[in-house]
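Follow-up to my post from last week.
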Amino acid sequence: MQKTISILGSTGSIGVNALNVVRHLSDKLDVVYLSAHTNAERMIEQCREFHPQTVVMIDENAAEIVHTELTLDGIEVRSGRRGLLDLAGRKDVDVMLNGLVGALGMEPTLEAVLAGVDVALSNKESLVMAGDIITKTMEKTGARLFPVDSEHSAIWQCLVGESLEDVRRIILTGSGGPFRTRSINTFGDITVDEALNHPNWDMGKKITIDSATMMNKGLEVIEAYWLFQLDPSQVDIVVHPQSIIHSMIELKDGSIKAQLGVPDMKVPIQYALMYPRHAEAPWERLNFMECGDLTFQPPDSERFPCIKLAYDAIDQMGTAPAVLNLANDYAVYSFLNGKIRFTDIPKIIKNAMEKHKWLKNPSLNDLKVLNKWTKLCVNNYS
Amino acid sequence: MQKTISILGSTGSIGVNALNVVRHLSDKLDVVYLSAHTNAERMIEQCREFHPQTVVMIDENAAEIVHTELTLDGIEVRSGRRGLLDLAGRKDVDVMLNGLVGALGMEPTLEAVLAGVDVALSNKESLVMAGDIITKTMEKTGARLFPVDSEHSAIWQCLVGESLEDVRRIILTGSGGPFRTRSINTFGDITVDEALNHPNWDMGKKITIDSATMMNKGLEVIEAYWLFQLDPSQVDIVVHPQSIIHSMIELKDGSIKAQLGVPDMKVPIQYALMYPRHAEAPWERLNFMECGDLTFQPPDSERFPCIKLAYDAIDQMGTAPAVLNLANDYAVYSFLNGKIRFTDIPKIIKNAMEKHKWLKNPSLNDLKVLNKWTKLCVNNYS
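User reply:
Got it. Predicted complex:
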């Protein structure tokens, strides 16, 4: 029997990898909905290959182009954020893969779990921004979250068959990014190209910058807190430059379980779509004779202040993780556009965290207001 | 509720470690039977601390000493191999830990599974000798085997919650023993003390020599075949000198799961006794900042011919694994007694494998006859 799936962000890095997975598992996975932002050309190609029922382009012009091209193929084309949220809330799919980037991915996750649809979640901002709202909604509708992040997928795989009570801690591994050994005195000179040059993983731009600042590890700590319902003190970070061990759990008897493999996002994507099965796949496997030595070191909090900011946000909870995430989104965007320096990113986030109006239990509307405030706060920072 | 357990070989390395586990989990584990070979003094200490109902000493003189000491404590003392097999066949325990060394450990395993009792199995010779008889008996009685070997425990832990169908292969790790880097030209000069000096694990003498010849990896391949019902081609060996990763499974999607920890037999012993739970334990944990780099290399078949002999035995099946194991038992015993050289061990095994009368489906009696033949064959080798 085929599983029906929808893919939000199908022309991005996660979406393209997901369609690679569907290509070799076409007898098991059936794509019914796709969404993208502006890349009309790639969306048209994807539609011709995978024949979804409905697609959404956020950008109106792109939607127009796709509509014109596909009008004879019987594929419904919709547009705009309203179209996206409507697609995310449809009940007639087994799994929705949320491959959207940044805070805009949060509401579609909420729409899907409201509809009782399981979400394969790559968009870590969903839980960082609205972990409380999403988990409470899941309790009501029975929808589940299947992590797609390689780290959280690793932990999820290690937890299969285990009792959460028996877990002492989880250990998120991080490569340390491209600046793990760069002299800290030169961090102010880091260029966009340098920051986009990740040593192990081929990912989208936003998450690659987050790897360079190690904010991605900070966001992952917050995400892990919501996914696995552990105390923040049970979530540790270990720097592991080879990105072979994707994360670990330590059990109360001292046994540690790890998930390993080549750094390839298709593995966690396929597992989230095929859960609980590990289906056959054609890609490269890890060769222990060629992978080199596996090394570990502690995270450097002076070099990567974003990690500490994330732990601070968990301590404060309420709106703190949301403002951390929003300020990071806008700061990374500014850095990518050459408006600020690499070292400004943590300063801007810290400033927004300190100045924002903290609320204990923010509503969705509170988060929208916070979003507007944070955008102004980041753009006015000097 | 307490689990009732019996421990065969309680004064040996596995037994002593098991009682260390029981000591800190005395509210969950209740020792009802103990057995040992000759160490009366240690057995008396163990009885005074753990108050079993019945103990067996294989040696008659040792039994007499223990009986005299414990006559007022209300502990039944029995003796001899008959006493051991009777104890192993008692139905009124939840788990029997078989910590016996060598081929003599096989029949007690069979007695326990015949009685429908789950066996925490450290004695790998049980499955190597009589895998077919034991697994067929288990099918009838519903008894289960819980591996205690660190490698098989690791694989068992990694398989929890997974479907065997989804496993591509299992990867047994081995330290490579004390002679991994020693010049092969000097192997003829290896002394007993050198061979007993294992770099990572503190174990009994027999298994320490098996680590030095890497025959232990060969026996583990055969044991894994019976425990996990995989094709021999799905069982690989990787040398990992640090003994931090205790073994791994590779799933069909390329995901690899590994179990790691400090090299401490108490971890797999506790897991086998507490399965499926990972109960709290007081011992040292793995510190990733201090464990050093993890490295891998292929096994060296020229240096360690015993590995190839074991794969040959699986290819031939029938009595081949049994004669491999028996010849190894007697050859290691001769080496420990200074009668043969280290490099004679594989030659003696190969000779016995070639000369023995191969049977496809040996009975228990066939194996006893084979045992006598092999003892003569090994002792007459020159």
